[in-house]
Design a protein that fits this description.
Elements: H1 2-21, E1 26-31, H2 39-55, E2 59-64, H3 72-81, E3 86-87, H4 114-121, H5 124-131, E4 138-153, E5 167-170, H6 174-182, E6 186-189, H7 195-201, E7 206-209, H8 211-216, E8 225-241, H9 242-247, H10 250-285, E9 289-292, H11 295-305, H12 307-311, H13 313-316, H14 318-328
Parallel strand pairs: 1-2, 1-3, 5-6, 5-7, 8-9
Antiparallel strand pairs: 3-8, 4-7, 4-8
Bound molecules: (2S)-2-hydroxybutanedioic acid (LMR).
């Protein structure tokens, strides 16, 4: 009897010591603006799942999708202040932070498709670009694809002249501003979370986005026309607050890097398929007319937009633009 109570007493003591020794988990708040059912949304959830499993509770990722916590501009401020630890903003959104080089990804008709973007993001030049975020207190960990940008509007957009006088929502990138104006339209910078309402109420006539966003944000319900133009690229950088990153134990950093490498592969594998699926769902809804530019129309859009590459040389850096051309084999013809 006595022995039994000593043993159970020891067991109690052991479990109490064990519970006491278990440190509180490291919490990583990961905020983003798109729906869960998008490449970025799904990849963020996948990353969370991998980290939960692999860290056995030592690290907990809390994902906040759909601008639930912060809108575009606010989320970058929140990251820098440490109110959240991780984000995956579109590459265009680092320009207003002062890292203008990222606007190279916005250059119209630079990339044919996501494969040609990989020639840049998976080359040393892609890593060098991520390094440029560090003086801003941000560590760039990975690139994630979404897809090519398409136009939506309430009028059919076939010829360049169809853009005339239209007010289009754009991300806050000078390059996007420049090519929207070059096409004869009026750009209107606006947070992603505000687009639907602005389209519905007629504050803007249209905008450009990847199909997965056009579908999940229901832009197609308030836009009569969708033009498959593939005139630009929408992708992301997965970033983390530098002070927080540097404070993590090295084994946790390695674990996060490993999980992120797998989540990146997952993202890039599903991105094109997701956008294709979104296009089919939009088509099925019958709510918007889908039109693909003819090669002649595409050539006319390209001709109108390409001078912007030169126009923004002083902003982005002529040398950088030239090395990107070389890396991806771009020829302006
Ligand atoms: C946009 O603002 O249109 C996109 O950058 C949103 C996103 O994160 O895909």
């Amino acid at each position: 009897m006595k022995i039994r109570s000593i043993v159970s007493g020891m067991a109690l003591l052991c479990s109490a010591t064990f519970a006491f020794a278990q440190p509180a988990p490291i919490i990583i708040k990961f905020s983003h603006v798109t729906a869960v059912d998008t490449p970025k949304g799904a990849a963020a959830e996948y990353f969370k799942k991998l980290v939960d499993e692999r860290s056995k509770g030592r690290v907990r990722i809390e994902v906040y999708p759909n601008s639930q916590l912060y809108k575009d501009k606010e989320e970058l401020e929140a990251l820098q202040m440490g109110a959240v630890q991780m984000l995956a903003p579109s590459l265009s959104k680092f320009g207003p932070l002062g890292v203008k080089e990222f606007e190279v990804f916005e250059l119209p008709y630079l990339f044919e498709d996501t494969q040609s973007v990989h020639k840049l993001t998976r080359a040393p030049i892609g890593q060098q670009l991520l390094k440029k975020l560090e003086p801003k207190g941000i560590v760039g960990l990975a690139y994630w694809d979404n897809g090519m940008r398409q136009m939506t509007a309430n009028r059919p957009l076939h010829a360049v002249s169809d853009w005339k006088g239209q007010k289009f929502r754009i991300v806050s990138a000078k390059v996007t501003d420049a090519y929207t104006r070059a096409m004869g339209a009026m750009p209107q910078v606006m947070a992603f979370s505000e687009i639907y309402q602005a389209m519905q109420s007629g504050v803007v006539d249209g905008g450009e986005n990847a199909l997965s966003n056009i579908y999940t944000q229901k832009f197609y319900e308030v836009q009569k026309h969708l033009t498959i133009s593939n005139h630009g690229y929408l992708g992301y950088a997965v970033v983390i607050n530098k002070k927080f990153w540097d404070s993590l134990p090295p084994d946790i950093r390695t674990l996060l890097e490993g999980a992120l490498a797998d989540a990146t592969k997952y993202n890039d594998d599903i991105a094109d398929k997701d956008n294709q699926r979104a296009l089919e769902a939009i088509r099925k809804s019958g709510k918007t007319t889908i039109y693909t530019l003819t090669p002649e129309e595409k050539a006319a859009w390209k001709k109108q937009m390409l001078p912007v590459h030169q126009q923004v040389e002083s902003r982005i850096g002529k040398e950088l633009i030239q090395s990107v051309y070389k890396e991806i084999g771009f020829k302006a013809d």
